[in-house]
Each structure stands twice: as C-alpha cells, then as structure tokens.
Amino acid sequence: MSVALERKTTRSSAVLVVQIISVLICIIMLLPIVMSFFASVKSPAEANLSPPNYFPIVYSLSNYAKIFSYQAGLGVYVWNSLVTALMSIAICLCLAVPAGYGFARFNFAYKEAWFLLLLSTMMFPFQALLVPLYLMFAKIGLANSHLGLAIVHSIIQLPFSIYLMRNSFEAVPAEIEDATYVDGCRSFTSLRRIMLPLVLPGVVTVALFAFVNSWNEFISALIFLNNENSFTVPILLVAVRIGHMGAIDWGALQAGVMVSIVPCVAVYLLLQRYYVSGLLNGAVK
Amino acid sequence: MSLTHQPRTGFFYVLPAIVFTCVFVLYPLTQLFYISLTDRTLLGGGHYIGFGNYTRAFADKAFWQAFEFTILYTIFLTPVLMALGFLLALLTVRNTGLSRFTRGVIFLPVVIGLASSSLLWVWLFDQQVGLINRVLMDLNIISAPWTWFNIFSRGFAAICFSVTWKVVGFGMILFVAALQSVGRELEEAAIIDGASYWQRVWRILVPLSRRTLFLAALISAIGSMLAFDQFYIMTGGGPRGQTFTSVYFVYQNSFVFFKLGYGAALSIILAVFILIGSIFQMWLSRRGATA
Fold first, then answer.
1. Number of separate helices (H) and strands (E) present in chain B
2. How many structural domains does chain A have?
3. Partner-chain residue, chosen from A128, A256, A284, that has the shortest CB–CB distance to B267
4. Tens-digit pLDDT profile for residues B150-163
C-alpha cells in the first residue's frame, strides 16, 4: 500500500471516529431533555413509580393538566414571567439604544469615563445588591411587583446591552448618517428613521438576551416575589418540587420543566445566529 | 456639519442609562455599605455598630465553611469545563453539517435556565424515581438505589455533572470562534513538519487560543463563585450544611433570618473577594498573553 493511500485511509477512519463521537455526544446531551419529556407524558401514577420505567406504558397529558391547574394555574405564572421579561426588554432597549447611539456618534466631555462607569457595574455581582434593593423597593412601592423584578433583571443586562449597541452603531458607516444631516434631519429623526433599521440585528440581540435572562433568572425572583400569585415560572416549579407534605409530584414537575424550557429553546432555534454572535461580541472583545 | 460638534446632544442620549445606573446600582451600593454598619433586621433596628458585622463575619465559622466550599467547587469545576469545552470545540470546529448540528445540540442547555435544569437533574438523580439509579442498576454498577444528595461527595458529583451538561457549550462556542481564527497555514506547516494531531493541538492551537481560554475561565469561575440556584434546588445546602455556597449563605442570613445588616456586610466581603479574584486572573492572563 502506498504511503499516500495509507494516509488517506487513516484520515477517513479518523473522520469516521469524529462522526461517531459527535453522534454519541448529541445523544448524551439530548437524553436528559428527552427523558424528562417522556416522564411528563406518563400517567401521574407511572411518573411516580419506583423504580421508574424508561418510557411510558400509557401516554397521558394529565401531568400537564395538573400543572396548568396548580394553585393559581400555570397560565398566571407564565403570564407573570412574560410580563416581567417584556418589561425588562423594554427597559434595556429604551436605555441601551440611545446610549449606544450617543457613545458611538457623538463627542462629549468625559465620554469614555461615563462608558467605563456604565460597564464597570458588570464587575460588581448584582447578588450583593439584593439587600439594599429589597429595602429600597419596599420604600418606593416596588416590593413584590413585576416592575421591580424587571428592574433588577435590567440591572444585570444593561452593561452588555449598552456595549453591544455602541458596537452596532459604530459599525454603521458615518457617511450614511451625514447624508441625512444634509437633508436637514435632526439627530433623533435620523436615529429613528435611518439608524434603527441598520442596527436591527443589535436590537434583536439585546432583546433576545434580556428575554432569556429574565425568563430564567432565579434568585431575585425568589427574594422579591412573596405573593404566591405573583410567582414567575421557576419559583412556581420550586414550590412544586417542595411538594405537599413530603410528597413530590414528579410527573407534574417534569411537565413544568418542559413548559419552562420550551420558550428558550424556541427562541434559540429561531434566533441562533443572533445568540451566538451576541455571545461572542459580549465575551471575546 | 458633523455630528461630533454637538456635545450636549450626545450626553442627552446617554443620560437615561446614567440616571438608571445611579438610582439602581450606585445609590444601592452606598446604602449597602451603610446598612452593613448597622444591626438592621427586617423589623427595624438599624443602629450604627461600626464594623461589628465585619468582625463577626470574619469569626463566623459557617461563613468560612461556605466560602471554602465555593472555592473548592470553583477550582474543581472550572478546569473540567475548560478542558471539556476545548475538546468539544476541537471535535466540532469544522463547518460540516454534522459538526454544526453537534455544536447546536451541545449549546442547547446553555439557553435553558439553571433552575429548570436543576429541577430536571434532581429528578434524574432522585433515589426512588430517578433514571440514573435505574441505568446504574441495569448496568450492574450498583446493586441498590443510591441516595445522591445525602452524602457530600455524591451530591457534589451530581451537581458538577449536571452543571457541566448545562454550561459546557458556552466555553465550546468561544473556543470554536478562537480556533477558526487560527490560520490554516500554520497548521499545514506543522503537518509538513510531521507533527501529529495532538502535538499540533498542544503546541499551536492551545497557545494561540490562550487569551480566549483565560477569558472563558474568568467568566466561568465568577459564575461558580456566585453559584446559588443549583445548590438551593438540588441539595438545599445539605448534608449538614456542607454544600452552602457563599451566595446561599448570604441569602440565608439576609432573607431567611432577615439579618439584613449582617447580610450586607457578607455581601460586601464576597464582592471584594470576587473583585480581587477577577483582577488577579486578568493580571495572570495579561502576563500569559505577553509571555
């Protein structure tokens, strides 16, 4: 066998090994979610069986029915999570889009110092701010409110959002905007009409990360929401996990886990491009 | 006329973000420091006690146990995540269909919440209904179902395993980007020199991605130092309080026992430690990048 041919065969066998490992890893990564799904469509009795079955003998939606009527009803909790996430998106965009525009397109006194100040809050763990925020919210009537929680979620997300919007605006060639000025546009009109469509990918990325962060955030939701009807989905699920008098309804819990991960997975599948580019933008530079 | 001659307009655009940050970050920060000097509880109090909370924290064995545990968790998990993430990046770096699909699948758990994934894994590891015990028994690895969270080492392993599943894709995505920016020429030159694949990885790809490696390690380590969700949900700090993390300990004191003054002091100590740690790691990475 010639050397070239030998190299070719070892190479194609290496490719085969890579392919086999890839498929195995895909299976391992997907298995927990798939098994949780199967548990969620077992009958309630079968979902609490010990030792457990791998796959349902009888398929049933009763676990979903249970979780949808749990306490105030899952619809209420999903709504709470959605409202909080939408408010957090709104806050992040209303603050970060103008700020990114201002930093990218104007010169003003101490500009870089202000930029650094806004970004440096990222260095300080927000978990350490929960005590003063808790007291402050109690004083100004934001305790146990979704707006208060959305503000906390926005605190986490704002530095990244401003950073990303500044980069987005800086990537737009200055000539495009200068042309609008010749036409007599004021800067706000120019931002709204000309710039915003051009930085839309940045806007989508900011909204996407604000949504995922808010939908999944746990510790501040646990602290700030103490009325059962105002819980967000993760807090409700923890209540299900604690169970009634030591008895945990595992089927209902896995149905709840499915409901909580579906929006994130859907958003990820739809906007994967923005997700990965946003991550690289935020982390690497 | 260029835009850059309107100094006030620019500041006007930035102002809302500055106001928000002042009201909801900087002002609470000053309050945090002030509260930490008082004996405030939820019911009131709030008498100035100087640095009493701090001296108490430094003498609090439970706090140091939680802190040490958090460091153990971070030191154990970060290298695992970096090494696995890098290997997965090597596996999926080519832009073939299967590689991209695998990358997408590995990244998938990153987008779901840590609370959701912990609730999923606490079920998988459950002694009675968990599938992990079922698999291990079917494979004859164990003879009776294990209780995972009543024994420190098992609970620790279970949490590390589930967190690895959840976040390993984060490092991988960063490493794929770093690897793809390494020029092909360098690798091809090494191939001609007869370097084996693992020699090329170790001598060329790892050194050229070290900036990204340091950065991913920093982000990952900070995340581990602030771990809360997975321990709150999976171990509840047990067994015997051995898996309380720093943030969990602060949470307990502040929002379960409502010792707000003490909690504030603990928060500051924790934040300072993390700040020092990140500065140290950034210093290391800068040295590593120039060396």
1. 15, 0
2. 1
3. A128
4. 999 999 999 999 99
